[in-house]
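[recover] target loaded
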């Protein structure tokens, strides 16, 4: 049983046996995509193969309050410090960005999420003001 077709058949039989033994809620989660199967090799500490993905928790701060505070801040560095002082986790920052209408890449790190929020709230406003400002008259 060394041909790829035979190995595939054997693996699929074992996966089917495993899935057949799952509780209804885990099976439903697999079906709708909120859970996934993982391969756990020997020596790995993780023993569960069905894991549920976390739903994004609402941020512990009010998005409108954050929007107002960021609107009052006049530079990118201060806006970054303000967001860092909120001490939000990456998931909370992602939820905040979503509430603010800011798209964030799914694999973005905490500094990248912070940068995106600052860029799309304070940075764009500052850029717009700089472009709109009339040039001084030359003498």
């Amino acid at each position: 049983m060394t041909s790829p077709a035979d190995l595939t058949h054997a693996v699929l039989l074992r996966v089917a046996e495993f899935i057949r033994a799952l509780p209804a809620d885990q099976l439903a989660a697999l079906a709708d995509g909120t859970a996934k199967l993982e391969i756990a090799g020997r020596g790995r500490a993780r023993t569960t193969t069905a894991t549920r993905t976390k739903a994004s928790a609402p941020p512990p701060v009010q998005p409108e309050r954050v929007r107002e505070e960021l609107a009052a801040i006049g530079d990118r560095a201060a806006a970054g410090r303000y967001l860092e002082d909120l001490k939000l986790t990456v998931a909370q920052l992602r939820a905040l960005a979503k509430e603010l209408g800011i798209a964030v890449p799914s694999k973005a790190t905490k500094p990248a999420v912070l940068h995106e929020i600052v860029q799309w709230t304070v940075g764009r406003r500052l850029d717009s003001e700089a472009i709109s400002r009339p040039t001084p008259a030359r003498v």
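[recover] notes: The chain has six helices and two strands.
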